[in-house]
Amino acid sequence: MKLLLDTHIILWALDDNPKLSEQAKALIMDADNDVYYSAAAVWETTIKYMAKPDKIRISGSKLSELCRKMGYQMLPITDKHVGVLETLVFHSEHQVHNDPFDRIMIAQAKADGMKFVTHDFKIPFYNESCVVAV
Question: Which fold has domain 2-133?
Answer without folding.
Answer: Rossmann fold (3.40.50)
